[in-house]
Amino acid sequence: MFLIEIAHPEGALADEDRRTVAAEIVAGLTGAGEEEAAEETMRWARRMTHVAFRGLGGWTTGDGPVTDGAAPPVWVTVTLPEHWREESARHCMGWIRRAVRKVDEAHGWERVGGDLWVNIVGVADGSIGLNGKPATGESVVEYMTADFRAAFEEGRVALPEGRLLDPECGMQVADGPRAMVLEHDGVRYGFCAEGCRTAFAKRHGIEVPAA
Q1: Which CATH code of 1.20.1740.10, 3.40.50.300, 3.30.429.10, 3.30.420.40 fits the domain covering 2-123?
Q2: Which terminal residue of the chain, N or C, has fewer Cβ atoms less than 10 Å from its own Cβ?
């Protein structure tokens, strides 16, 4: 679940610019081309990621109205479950910055600073309206990964040697001292993110070790 709203001065970004920015962000946040991610999960991750644009009139900064021909200011708000915010913020900001830079380079725009803002907003459990019904960060993960977990339980998931499987979303995780892991019924599992580990632990009644 990534709900991304991108505001810019009215008329500053052409349709092609918007398509470029949206495609770059979606690719980065939903793991396009990531062979180690389960397609069952990524299909839902793509479906639950939304990017929209708002062209705002009369955009003014402390220096006055925005100058035509200069790199237009961009103000991005990313809404996601509060439980994901700290872990996801840096990754989200990096991909959005990359997406904006791609358009800047195409136009020959140079940013002087203070004109690109990315705010990551977390929504509290119970205030997330998945399909219009109250949800939590954990239930969003459960919803997004249901198809993968069904395939996993039916034995339709193969795992290469030397990798751990995130049983929640299907991501393959490198085993090692820095891996985020849990053991359940004698099986060692790896997790790609805290949200996946928390959802799995809660469902199976496992205590997550303190960081």
Answers
A1: 3.30.429.10
A2: C
